[in-house]
């Protein structure tokens, strides 16, 4: 029977992935979570997860969490309101060292949760997985730290055989996640028609699960995003707010920024979004 380790299990992605992963795991299988605070892991333990207390940035804690593990899903991320050094330490350094130790532990699959922001802008079309990683500075060090992690992990796959699959997510929302509310501030100075590509937590979970179990895709990256990016106008409308003055007169400098091609995820992994748009999620009460 398999044991799957999920890091970042109490974060926005992890706390919504783990309950689903517990349901999707075959009888006798184990979902293990690495948490820094045992109290925060109690809800997941009550659902049936095996809890290991430790810090992803600590080599000894990583080794403890990896003991006997068959697969890893790394959802840990330091994004908003953290010092730059913490973002680098978690998003790049700890992720790469986790990959090295997972390789030594003999895992059969290592799923890295990435971001569509690694592609940067100026492509004139949706980003494809094979495009160069050129993160800009608009979103802080987060895209750069994730891009360097992707590059280093792909090198571990190429040179050492790490059984890596990367899933690059659009702006994640849904199920009470505050990201959608936070998007109001982020889009306040955008043109009213500028669009934000998003992906619902339910669809993040199924994308990560398919990356975990689909055979023969090692060394690949896949993009996950909803079918219809959301305008800044609608981000504000969903929050019950008026659009900031002047937004309707602004121009969008890069209409394709953040858009990514999801066709490989659909065709090769059979992924179909449960919530193709933010409006279907709204209608289902899943915001």
Structure notes:
The protein is α/β, with parallel strands linked by helices and 287 residues long. The protein has a single domain, classed as Rossmann fold (3-Layer(aba) Sandwich). Helix content is 37%, strand content 16%. The strands form three sheets. Strands 3-2-1-4-5-6-10 form a seven-stranded parallel β-sheet, sandwiched between helices. The chain has a two-stranded parallel sheet with strand order 7-9. Strand 2, helix 2 and strand 3 form a beta-alpha-beta unit. Helix 1 packs across helix 7. The protein starts with a strand and ends with a helix.
Give the second-level CATH assignment, the architecture.
3-Layer(aba) Sandwich
| CATH topology grouping | Rossmann fold
Strand proportion, as a percent range, falls in: 15-25%
Structural class: alpha/beta
Number of helices: 10
């Amino acid at each position: 029977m398999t044991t799957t380790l999920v890091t970042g299990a109490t974060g926005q992605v992890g706390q919504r992935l783990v309950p689903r992963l517990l349901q999707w795991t075959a009888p006798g299988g184990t979902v293990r979570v690495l948490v820094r605070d045992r109290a925060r892991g109690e809800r997941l333990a009550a659902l049936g997860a095996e809890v290991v207390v430790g810090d992803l940035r600590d080599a000894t804690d990583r080794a403890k969490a990896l003991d006997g593990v068959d697969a890893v899903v790394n959802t840990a991320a330091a994004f908003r309101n953290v010092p730059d050094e913490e973002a680098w330490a978690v998003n790049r350094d700890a992720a790469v060292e986790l990959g090295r130790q997972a390789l030594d532990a003999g895992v059969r699959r290592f799923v890295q949760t990435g971001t569509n922001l690694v592609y940067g802008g100026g492509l004139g079309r949706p980003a494809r997985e094979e495009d160069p990683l050129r993160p800009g500075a608009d979103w802080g060090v987060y895209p750069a730290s994730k891009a360097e992690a992707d590059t280093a992990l792909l090198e571990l796959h190429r040179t050492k055989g790490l059984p890596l699959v990367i899933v690059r997510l659009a702006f994640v929302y849904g199920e009470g996640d505050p990201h959608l509310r936070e998007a109001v501030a982020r889009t306040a100075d955008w043109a009213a028609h500028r669009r934000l590509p998003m992906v619902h937590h339910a669809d993040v979970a199924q994308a990560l699960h398919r990356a975990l179990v689909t055979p023969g895709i090692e060394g690949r990256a896949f993009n996950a995003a909803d079918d219809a990016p959301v305008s800044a106008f609608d981000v504000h409308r969903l929050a019950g707010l008026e659009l900031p003055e002047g937004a309707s007169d602004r121009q969008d400098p890069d209409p394709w920024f953040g858009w990514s091609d999801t066709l490989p995820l659909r065709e090769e992994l059979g992924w179909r979004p449960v919530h193709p748009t933010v409006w279907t999620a709204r209608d289902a009460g899943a915001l």
